[in-house]
Amino acid sequence: MSTVHAVGIYKCPSHLTTAAFAQKVEAVMDAILAAPVTQRHILKYELLVSNEDGDGHIQNLGMPSHQGTVIIVAEWASQKALTEVATDPGLVQILARAKEEFNIHLDSSTFTVDVIRKK
Fold this sequence. Notes:
ABM domain-containing protein, 5 helices, alpha+beta
């Protein structure tokens, strides 16, 4: 059985700074990661927070500067494992509270991906 990689890209709501939004997302993810169902199935987790360090270089390439964004990357043991976690009633409640509290799903995109690794 192959592993499953999931990515969530969450734009910062206009009423929060990127740092404040990242802190809230991290707290939600800490609660999710602490759940026994997650502990059984997650293999790897990363939280990526956009910053302005490369904005000048990016603008020189003709692209717009970053918007406050938080990216979650997780690797799961299997599709069945991801489904079990995603449908866990306790975790569904955690995400519902986050949506109510700070619009975590506003302008977001969450999906599974195929990983192509090259050296």
